[in-house]
């Protein structure tokens, strides 16, 4: 097979996979999407990426860039034609350098997120991007999908954490843009165009990342709340009271916590009596540049006011790092414990915070009307207006019944999101999953402009075809 | 003149200016650039902007969008052909709404920056963009040029303060993108493409802006320093010690302060003896969510350590708001007091913070070699790596002599910036001023991609021709 021979000539035989060896790269980690590939190319340097791209372009071969293959929308899985080359960035995994005075790090696309965090920590710095897949996702994938996570409230999305990019274009040229500058107004912002474009415009091979000082201490509190409306007021007061020290604000429906302790009996809800069975909870995290005592004192003052005002019905403030971790562990256990409710239909949406309560109320009611007895499983990053609004069979449907109606559920929820000026993909991206529904919700002028950009930067349509657009 | 009649039909006679009335719009505020216009169109609504653009496009007439006309690079001034229509956004000056729970404001492009700040303050919120021209520049111009200013260290550049845009495209279509979402991963980031493109891709007509809680208190300190190297270490310690409470870090050369007190004898340098004649100073600002006392205590602790370590030779911490303002006033008086040194050649550059000391040393030495006795006038936002590196006649050159060599000075300084991996335009943009030198310093692959974007979004080249590219 001469085509693969050419790739082997560029990369060496051990870095070109086909047949069975290629399989793990042609199916996503949840097994929801599967395809086939002509080959999997594993370049070890930016120049090799460029050579592979030039060879694919010359031979009209579609390319599917892949990082840790942890995406949730099928953005890194080839179609089933078997014509595409999967370009895995896994071997581009060096931290090229850390500049502590400039608070920047240059990392290659294939660096595992956790390794990036760790390298920063060893230099007494924080790289704040943090999400469930951090042990296996790559920074290149994080940037290509503009990943979110739990620290967005304070530090922003992946796009806000990058100063410059090295990119291999659709023609196989190298854009040398690894600037470490916080101010640079010399032309169009190509960086933000590649970030979030899911490999459809070019391949990110390295990034210049922002670092922050490590907080001296952090502290966590869990508040028991009566309503989403109260949660929104609590958020507003917390932003005022804590300023930028507020680094996390998670909203959790009561049934999610019940699900966690049912699934993991060694965990417990840290309240007694009625406070243990409230409809909503909020998890707040403070990062402090003074001390753990100071963080706790701040919590006591501000949360004390919220209790007094009747906004929070009860509150637990962690007394030490172990208790803080136990509270976060409750939150982090939700996704896996969701199986207690049966296989659910998941939505990753964002809504203006001010409309959140109305959105939840209206959407819940509409779902109940159409699917009586269905169960809502709702949690998310309220500080960013981001909800994981999931829908489970409850006691009244079988998983199969619900699954057979999943497109009805999607449409109902996404239509509602749209009416509340929200986004149908807050942090997971578009990929294959939401490509076809995008035009239903996106401004047609914006869709047309996106097509023009695609045409301008990838005129032959070889970069990750079938994704986003 | 039938062409203008058409514009009059769209906008009404009082909103189309020609002849003498058009003059103020065809010259920049410093009188450095002047041109001529077929007419000045002053639409009052987004729809009128779209109508004007469609009419211009249909008649092949170039368009020059203009906000407060306060730019420093000639980006809003038409060329002298007299063929272009200047589209002033001044009448689009409504704040369309403020959403305090969502911490967002929708403002039209022609809103004066100070009015945006004021509207936020009235809603008990902060809109943090702040710069010298805030009394007359517009938010549309701030976004079109990605303005910087004094709060970038904490809050970022203009691009970091916008969540969504309404844009009239080069064809006169309206992109309805006024989203108020902190997370939205549904396709390419068009927003950041228009931000900083200086009106060459389309016209921003309104923006959804991020608001922040108003700090409870702020406090300012002035530190006397021996070297830029010490300033960089002080910055690093301040970031660690204060976290996100550090909202300003300005570097000021000693001769700049001397210039201020010479020019404005009612001002004084708040030190005695040798501390009043140090080569460098740093102005630090803390914004606190607790109290003025707390801010001062934090300053005392962290700055105390710096004094003990010999990093700072002396320090003044403001005891009240009046003293804080007096310290900031010193910094803000520098640009106008520069006349004490004679008409200077100005550079708005950024450098990785870690290379700042070497850059200043090397560039100063190279300038002295080529122009013996020339005077360096250096100040800027060290926290963002942004220097206003200005060069004055000193005692040895006449203003005319220096002016006649200005391109030699530009080239020497910009070449040095380039060698130190910096940017030749940190916050002022490109406009006409730096358009022709851009290809000298920019990656050719990046320049080619910028041209492709321009071609894709403004294929007929009618949007602000002759600027940026």
TrEMBL record, chains A, B:
Molecular function (Gene Ontology), one example: FAD binding
Cofactor(s) the protein needs: FAD
InterPro entries: FAD-bd_oxidored_4_C (IPR004113), FAD-bd_PCMH (IPR016166), FAD-bd_PCMH-like_sf (IPR036318), FAD-bd_PCMH_sub1 (IPR016167), FAD-bd_PCMH_sub2 (IPR016169), FAD-linked_Oxase-like_C (IPR016164), FAD-oxidored/transferase_4 (IPR051264), Oxid_FAD_bind_N (IPR006094)
Keyword Acetylation: no
Top-rank taxon: Bacteria
SUPFAM superfamilies: FAD-binding/transporter-associated domain-like (SSF56176), FAD-linked oxidases, C-terminal domain (SSF55103)
GO biological process, one term: respiratory electron transport chain
Keywords for this protein: FAD, Flavoprotein
Name assigned to this protein: FAD-binding oxidoreductase
